[in-house]
Description:
Keywords: Membrane, Transmembrane, Transmembrane helix
Transmembrane segments: 7-28, 34-54
Shape: elongated
Number of strands: 0
Pfam families: DUF7333
Strand content: under 5%
Helix content: over 70%
InterPro entries: DUF7333
Amino acid sequence: MEFDTTVTGGIFVLIIAVAVGGLIGSNVMPTNTILMMVLPSMLAFGLICLGIGVKHGEHRAGSSGRL
């Protein structure tokens, strides 16, 4: 599967949406708390991890001939 910007963004949004939907559906905390505190922190953490993953992939692709 080829990961371009559209596919990566779609999968990112889908994962966050499923997680937030699960939290809202499970009723573990008020919906306002989930949407105002948990959702932004999920997005920030996800973007940081995505950036680290992209940089790691670039590093691995560039150093494939070295040990």
